[in-house]
Predict the structure of Peptidase M15.
Amino acid sequence: MKKLIGALLMTGLVAGCAPLAFFASSNGSGYRGLDRSLGTFIAHDNVNAICLTPALRFVIWDFEGHFGKKVVMNSGYRDPFYNGKVGGADASYHMKCMAADFYIPGVPKEKLIAYGMRHSGVGGLGCYYNHPFIHVDVRERPRGRKTPVTFSC
């Protein structure tokens, strides 16, 4: 009996520590036809979802857990050549494996931005005019700043 109770307690503890992202859904038409890279849905073949820092992975998992749906990454790691080709900043956090551009099918961009503004792990946050995705990075926030550094649509 002690072993059974111990096993149930351990199961409860482990389940409580599991990121809610593990339970996020990828059902619906917004995911049809998309490829995956290391378990991450990607919008096109040029997305590199391999090189993401643990801090960025945790932030993405938090978004997935909060909204209950998987993200679709539009941009992850960029090498300097590709970053220049797409018009990225010279010191882009994408080149440091610290940034991702993503959307969540069925979730308005405004809701993603609002959640990112409240998330303590988000250091930089922005969106692009006429695109469904947002930019999230895990840079250090300037001293005393309680919200991410932002750029607008």
Remarks:
- The beta strands are 35-37, 40-42, 72-75, 99-103, 124-127, 134-137, 149-151.
- The CA atoms of residues 128 and 153 lie 5 Å apart.
